[in-house]
Amino acid sequence: MGGGGQMISVYPEELTFDFELEKPSYCNIKVVNNTEHHVAFKVKTTSPKKYFVRPNASVVQPWDSCTITVTLQPQKEYPPDMQCKDKFLIQSAKVPPSNDIDEIPSDTFNKDGDKVIEELKLRVVYTSPSQSGLGNSEEESGLASSATGKRDMHKNSSNEEIQMLQHLKEERDTIVQQNHQLQRELDMLKRRRNRKSDAGFSLTFAAFAGLVGIMVGFILNLTLSTPPTA
C-alpha cells in the first residue's frame, strides 16, 4: 500500500523498522514519478540524528522511480511501549530537465509565489524481534500444518488405491475360479456326449450283426432243407 499525490507516489506509506538495541535497522522507500515532467524530491525527518537517508534528495525522470534507503542508527534503549513519534516528510516539485540534484534551483522547495510543492507525510513503526519471530513461527506453523495436511491427503489417497487394487485382485480371482468351473463342466458335458455316442454305435452294430446272422441262418436252413435233384 502506498501514499501519493499528483506528482509522485510513495511505497510504502509508513516506515517499518525491526528495532534491536545497538543494531542498525533498514527500510526502503520507493518514489514514483507520475508525470511527464522531471520531478525533484527532498526527504526531511523530525529526528535527523537518528536516521541516515540516502539519497535524501534527487531528481526522478518522467514515469520513472527512485529507491530511498533509510537507516535507523543503533539505539541504546527501547522507546516507551515500542511507540515511535518520529515523522518523515517528502517534498516534491517539478523542475527543468536534469539528472543532477545540484543543478536545480536552490529555492526549488521554498514555498513562495505560485510554485507548486507537494508534501507527503510518513509515520515510523517499530517492531521487536519477538514479534517478527512470532510472525515467522505462525507462518512456519501454517506451513507445517499445510504440509501435514498434504501428507494426510497423500496417505488417504494411497490407502484408497491399495483397497481398490485388493478389490480388483479379488474380482480377478473370482473370475478365474468361475472360468475353471465352467471349463470343468464343459469337459464333463463332452465326456457324457462321447459316451452316449459310443453306446448308440454299439447298439446299432449289435442289431445289424443280429440281422445278418438271422439272414445267414435262414439261407443255410433253406439250403439244407432243399432235396437234391436227380
TrEMBL record:
<feature type="transmembrane region" description="Helical">
    <location>
        <begin position="199"/>
        <end position="220"/>
    </location>
</feature>
<dbReference type="GO" id="GO:0005886">
    <property type="term" value="C:plasma membrane"/>
</dbReference>
<dbReference type="InterPro" id="IPR013783">
    <property type="entry name" value="Ig-like_fold"/>
</dbReference>
<keyword id="KW-0175">Coiled coil</keyword>
<dbReference type="InterPro" id="IPR016763">
    <property type="entry name" value="VAP"/>
</dbReference>
<feature type="domain" description="MSP">
    <location>
        <begin position="7"/>
        <end position="127"/>
    </location>
</feature>
<protein>
    <recommendedName>
        <fullName>MSP domain-containing protein</fullName>
    </recommendedName>
</protein>
<keyword id="KW-0472">Membrane</keyword>
<dbReference type="GO" id="GO:0043495">
    <property type="term" value="F:protein-membrane adaptor activity"/>
</dbReference>
<keyword id="KW-1133">Transmembrane helix</keyword>
<dbReference type="GO" id="GO:0061817">
    <property type="term" value="P:endoplasmic reticulum-plasma membrane tethering"/>
</dbReference>
<dbReference type="InterPro" id="IPR008962">
    <property type="entry name" value="PapD-like_sf"/>
</dbReference>
<feature type="coiled-coil region">
    <location>
        <begin position="165"/>
        <end position="199"/>
    </location>
</feature>
<comment type="similarity">
    <text>Belongs to the VAMP-associated protein (VAP) (TC 9.B.17) family.</text>
</comment>
<dbReference type="GO" id="GO:0090158">
    <property type="term" value="P:endoplasmic reticulum membrane organization"/>
</dbReference>
<dbReference type="Pfam" id="PF00635">
    <property type="entry name" value="Motile_Sperm"/>
</dbReference>
<dbReference type="InterPro" id="IPR000535">
    <property type="entry name" value="MSP_dom"/>
</dbReference>
<feature type="region of interest" description="Disordered">
    <location>
        <begin position="128"/>
        <end position="156"/>
    </location>
</feature>
<dbReference type="GO" id="GO:0005789">
    <property type="term" value="C:endoplasmic reticulum membrane"/>
</dbReference>
<keyword id="KW-0812">Transmembrane</keyword>
